Amino acid sequence: MQNERQSQLVVFVSAFILLFAIQGLFVRPGSASTGLQDFWLEAWSSNQYTFDCNAHDILYGELVVKQDGDLFPGDQTKYDIWLIQGVNVLVCNQTNYSLWLSGKEPAAIVRGDHVSSFSWRTEVPGAGLWYIICYSDSIFRKHLEVSVNQVASLTPVGLVLMTSAAVLFALVITSVVRFIRLRSRHGTDRSERAGKRRPETVKPPAVSQRSMLTLRRWNRALA
Predict the structure, then answer these.
(1) Tens digit of pLDDT for each residue in 70-129?
(2) Cα–Cα distances in Å, from 24 out to 48, 52, 86, 153, 162?
């Protein structure tokens, strides 16, 4: 029983290692992360993050405005109103980034207007450079915490092969486990049958009639 469990464990571990190895062959390179960045965004300024993406890559992140009115002298309520306006967030491709730089309205796939806390997760529709823009249209600077991440997608061929490999591994594992169980049961049945057998009676060797006569003559002579 212990050998059967050890064999099953080896099969499962080997299958998972092989599956992850195949996955590594077909995942597109390019996954990246900015980590958590803590910085001040000055008045009427912006901060951009650029990612070189493939189609269907995932961009996700989070932004938090940390600053509060207590950091300013004077009428705290007035400054709090300014800070509630937050900052603006855009996620767009290179064409729309150029439009934004020229002062025109970009077509962003993600937009957050005057947010003090904002998170996003989106799949980019096409390959190329993609930009995450954080900008302020306030006269006051803002204290921000920002993290942005990119997750690379699988190629279409890789997705098909990964699915096929997963199905194949499942079939192989099932077959191996069944084979191990059958062998284990067969060995158990043989042991039980061997234990139930009756001990064989050993018969003494047969003695011929001539040998018996010879023994009688010797006995008479000795007597």
Answers:
(1) 545 555 555 555 556 789 999 999 999 999 999 999 999 999 999 989 999 999 999 999
(2) 30, 19, 41, 11, 10
Specify the CATH architecture of the domain 28-153: Sandwich (2.60)
Altogether, the residues listed in the chain come to a count of 223
Strand-strand pairing, 142-151 and 58-65: antiparallel
- Where are the domains positioned within the chain? 1-27+155-182, 28-153
Read off the pTM. Answer: 0.57
Average pLDDT, the chain: 76
Q: What is the DSSP string of the chain?
A: -HHHHHHHHHHHHHHHHHHHHHHHHHBPS--EE---EEEEE-TT-EEEEEEEE-TT-EEEEEEEE---GGGSSS-HHHHHHHHHT-EEEEEEEHHHHHHHHTTPPP--SEEEEEESEEEEEEE-SSSEEEEEEEE--SSS-EEEEEEEEEEPPBPHHHHHHHHHHHHHHHHHHHHHHHHHHHHHHHHHHHHHHHHHSPPPPPPPPP--HHHHHHHHHHHHHH-
Percentage of the chain lying above the pLDDT 70 cut: 52
